Amino acid sequence: MALAAAQIEQLNTQFKGIPPEEIISWAVKHGQTPVVTTNFRPYEVAILHAVSQVSQDIPVIWCDTGYNTPKTYKHAEELIERLHLNIKLYVPKQTSAHRDAVMGIPQIDDPGHEEFTRQVKLEPFARAMSDFKPDVWFTNLRKGQTALRDSLDILSLSKDGVLKVSPFYHYSDTQLDTYLRKFDLPNEHNYFDPTKVLANRECGLHT
């Protein structure tokens, strides 16, 4: 789906305040190869539920770092079964046990942190995107999460020209809590991202 910057800006104005499912339906109708990405972090259930209500055929790419908590893995399995997600699992080429033995989890100021992030997140993600070659990429990016994300909107372009669609972009945590209660959806707050260190730091997928 090729859109000019002016078209994206106009659509973002039109989509503000529109229910997420309508935005998703529009993107599915106009796209050819949509995907959803997830790591089952807090509030990810919202985008997974909303997309699954429109189409259950869309590939749901899960790049599992191998460092999730047991609760997150149980949460993921519950959602996969409940929402009938078309999960496509991508994992690092090296096991976490092997990496722990030779590298561990480097701190943000450690020279090895960049390579660690590449191994556990960026490489599996790039492999997935190469396999599926999406023109539409559903995400749960929201305003207020990071400085970068504050500069985006409901629709934005990735560095590779893929149309990123974030239907809940203008939602607050309170609004998402209301959405989850409405549909009796579970949330997961016991999530660990070994690449971020700080909650408001980008891991590299959206830069």
TrEMBL record:
Gene3D superfamilies: HUPs
Pathway: Sulfur metabolism; hydrogen sulfide biosynthesis; sulfite from sulfate
Coiled coil: none
One protein family per Pfam: PAPS_reduct
Domain Phosphoadenosine phosphosulphate reductase: start-end pairs: 34-187
SUPFAM superfamilies, A to Z: Adenine nucleotide alpha hydrolases-like
Record InterPro entries: PAPS_reduct_dom, Rossmann-like_a/b/a_fold
Family stated for the protein in its record: Belongs to the PAPS reductase family. CysH subfamily.
Protein name: Phosphoadenosine phosphosulfate reductase family protein
